[in-house]
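EI: anyone free to look at a 223-residue chain?
SC: sure, send it
EI:
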Amino acid sequence: MLPPLLDIDNLRKTVPGGRLLFDGLSMRLRAGELVAIMGESGVGKSTFLNLIAGLDTPDAGSVVLDGTDLATLDEDGRAALRRARIGFVFQAFHILPHLTLGQNVGLPLALLRAAPADVRSRAKELLTAVGLSGRDADYPSQLSGGELQRVAIARALAHRPALILADEPTGNLDPETAARVLALLVAQLREAGASALLVTHSDVAAASADRVMRLTSAGLVPA
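SC: here you go
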């Protein structure tokens, strides 16, 4: 059996003031698997994603991504791993307003110093895949919220990451647009063969996952 893409063992995390978010948190994520993470507000779902991405460090426990223990890396090493192996989709889109759609989508590849022609080609390919063909020269101000989230999905997949971390990706969208964007996200993940952790409050969004887990102070439990 292949080792898991993501192996999390006995994570413990407190916040300033000493409040315990969770303890004993363990999970394994297989290559190509989509897992939804649910839980009450303030339980630490976004912090959990930050620990996986190496943007924060646990009080105890380990995060091993694709065979690399994040604790063995310095800040530059964690940043390099993020750029190469992780894609992000956020609730607030985080599309850069001064860049064109093509430049936004191609940004992860540009940061990896890919050839400019390859960056442009990949951006065009992904914008077409998310239904925005021919709009690579447009700017974010010309798009609706649903279209901006499509751009965010395309950007997250640009460098062919092994893992996508999606934090409430449909939280700022109306229900109809959210359903379309979610279906697009899942379809693109399946096509790319990427694994994903989807943090969500939405039962509809969670239903698209292979597994649904609930984050509690005692760790992750099946939902």
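EI: Helices lie at 45-52, 75-85, 101-111, 116-129, 145-157, 175-192, 203-206.
SC: 👍
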